[in-house]
Write a structure and sequence with these properties.
single chain; 436 residues; alpha+beta; five-stranded mixed sheet; two-stranded antiparallel sheet; 11 strands
Length: 436
């Protein structure tokens, strides 16, 4: 497509679209005009954006040829390691596959009942008391901040109770996440700002705190090799998963502990995705009072005493699924592909490597695959409805699909259920801050 076809071909229009929170919606329209696969160049280097489900199937399933990008800012920030390039999220290769297989037992759907038994009383105890106190005082509640503490507190149910308080985890995670998505020139401004020292100290301290807790648990497991790892002990599972190297035990504790630190920090950052998703859901509901009240009525009416009761929240699940479509926490992805010659849609790329871009948001708003895609419509999720393959990827898909999707759905439903039984709100009482 011609350069001036997208935002007039100049950066101020792009920045204005971002500031108005319209960039991705306009990008969806642009893809509709010019096709699902676009080739563009930065200098002599080719890049491809694709919204083609068939191509995304290949990108998502062929891990031997399509690799995650190691230079993203959540891996490290100016040389300060955050999640690194070998975590359960960012890693690759055989060792990563073995680690993922080990952790799939913890995140299995049939293990959610055990997690529910621990998380529910926790939510109804300390965390619910905190919400009641805030509401009782008539405080203005910043949803993201408070839900960050709620979801961070769930980590205490998963074998991470010695790793900081929920408030500390939420605060440190929020500060790290504030720096990561900034444009490159803004991130470099950290090098000459007073925020730089605080940010680097915060990252270093968070990793140091995690290291100490993990080393203690590592020694406990090593000293009791015949004792099984409890089903709710995420930290124990992570340690066991990282002790495996191509199927062989790796006994160097420093190596294992450092690898588990990467995974624990990853879990803390991923928890924030659930927070953003609940916030997005509540924002969408705020604009459609009749849908909001129908979901809230179901939450108030349905007693939740065991895991199976969450499955009865049929309308709530539809609303969550629709919010995952309309405002996914994961907006885009990137893969590197090294080759000599490869066809992508109508293009043949003759080069050593090409970077492939895709967007969950664009796929999930594409009118080719979704009727009335800009409308928040939970009723589209009727029993038997199956989206076009690779057009709905809120937890990504394929071999790198999110291991924790069942846990995420369980925790979101549980949080909404307990919270809605203790509070009410009116649309007039809720103000909207920019949500990107």
């Amino acid at each position: 497509p011609p350069l001036d076809s997208i935002f007039g071909g100049h950066e101020p229009s792009v920045n204005k679209a971002k500031a108005d929170n319209r960039f991705l919606d306009l990008f969806v329209d642009w893809i509709g005009l010019y096709g699902n696969t676009i080739l563009f160049y930065i200098g002599a280097r080719p890049f491809i954006f694709t919204a083609d489900p068939d191509m995304l199937k290949v990108v998502s399933t062929d891990l031997s040829r399509f690799h995650k990008v190691s230079s993203l800012p959540n891996r490290s920030l100016f040389g300060h390691k955050i999640i690194g390039t070998d975590s359960i999220l960012s890693g690759g290769g055989l060792r990563w596959a073995v680690k993922r297989k080990c952790m799939s037992q913890f995140f299995a759907k049939n293990n959610m009942s055990e997690l529910f038994k621990v998380c529910k009383p926790h939510m109804e105890g300390r965390d619910l008391l905190r919400w009641k106190e805030l509401i009782k005082k008539g405080n203005t509640i910043e949803l993201h901040d408070q839900l960050s503490i709620t979801f961070s507190s769930y980590l205490h149910c998963l074998g991470l109770e010695k790793f900081l308080t929920a408030d500390d985890i939420a605060d440190r995670t929020a500060n790290i996440l504030e720096a990561i998505p900034k444009p490159l020139f803004q991130r470099f401004s950290y090098l000459i700002s007073s925020d730089k020292t605080r940010m680097f100290k915060l990252i270093k301290q968070m990793r140091s705190d995690a290291q100490q807790v993990i080393l203690e648990r590592y020694e406990e497991i090593s000293n009791n090799p015949d004792e099984p790892i409890p089903k709710m002990d995420m930290l124990g599972y992570l340690i066991e998963a990282n002790k495996s190297n191509d199927g062989k035990e790796l006994n160097e504790p420093e190596f294992v502990v450092e690898s588990v630190v990467d995974d624990v920090i990853t879990v803390c950052l991923v928890m924030d995705n659930m927070v953003k998703q609940v916030c997005a859901l509540l924002m969408f509901l705020n604009d459609v009072p009749e849908i909001q009240e129908k979901m809230f009525a179901e939450l108030r009416a349905q007693p939740i005493n065991q895991m199976e009761d969450l499955n009865k929240l049929k309308y709530t699940e539809k609303c969550i699924l629709e919010s995952l479509r309309m405002g996914p926490a994961l907006l885009r992805g990137t893969r590197n592909y090294k080759c000599k010659k490869k066809r992508f849609g109508p293009y043949i790329i003759n080069t050593g490597s090409v970077r492939i871009h895709f967007s969950e948001y664009v796929m999930q708003h594409n009118p080719q695959w979704w009727s009335n895609p800009k409308k928040f419509d939970p009723e589209r999720w009727q029993p038997g409805f199956v989206p076009q393959a690779f057009s709905y990827m809120p937890f990504y898909t394929g071999a790198r699909g999110c291991l924790g999707k069942h846990m995420a759905m369980m925790l979101m439903k549980l949080t909404l259920s307990v919270w809605r039984k203790t509070s009410r709100w009116n649309k007039s009482s809720m103000s909207r801050s920019p949500y990107h």
